[in-house]
UniProtKB/TrEMBL annotation:
Composition bias type Pro residues, residue spans: 186-199
A Pfam family this chain is assigned to: PNPOx_N
Disordered, as annotated region: 183-212
Compositionally biased region (Low complexity): 200-212
Sequence ranges assigned to domain Pyridoxamine 5'-phosphate oxidase N-terminal in this UniProt record: 10-134
Protein name: Pyridoxamine 5'-phosphate oxidase
Species in which this protein is naturally found: Streptomyces prasinopilosus
Amino acid sequence: MGKTYERIDGRLRTFIEAQPVFFTATAPLSADGTVNLSPKGLTGSFAVLDELTVAYLDFAGSTAETIAHLRENGRITLMWCAFQGPPTVVRVHGRGEPVFRDDPRFSELLARFPGIDPTAHGLRAIVVVSADLIRDSCGYAVPFMAYEADRDLHGKRFAREDDASLDAYFTKKDHIAASLDGLPGLPLPLPPSPSPAPRRPASSEAAVPDVP
């Protein structure tokens, strides 16, 4: 039986942070719009900011569907599956916002991801999600699969880009500045990437920049 949680802590947080991959689902308001479902990986690119707020780094890619949907309506669901250990599926339903490079909150949020070098991956935004509903369910039909390692292809592809060439890459793609359905996507031209704010002491770790 599924269980509803009031917050992301304890064993639930431990489970989420241990998974090497998660999925994000978004959709436009239009009834005939394109529903989007994306896999997310790369160790260190996800963080629990507090008991009701999570965030992940949005890296370079050939589309920007999640960003476009969040800019229009903010709805998002994140899902984690246990591919090893007890069968568990966790979903966080909530409201998301893409925080872009020129946002005053960007550098402080970026400091919450000390385990990854975002410069190698063409970081374009940080997606912050405020949880409205947190639930788990059984994962009896989810197969056992072993995690071996992160792929290094994304870093190899985008590490050679600077801000100017990355902007040119995004500009020439059909579905970066606008979604498949024509919604506003990644704002271009791409602002320069700011330096992360200094890492805060552990005692202040729970503080999170305000996100509407």
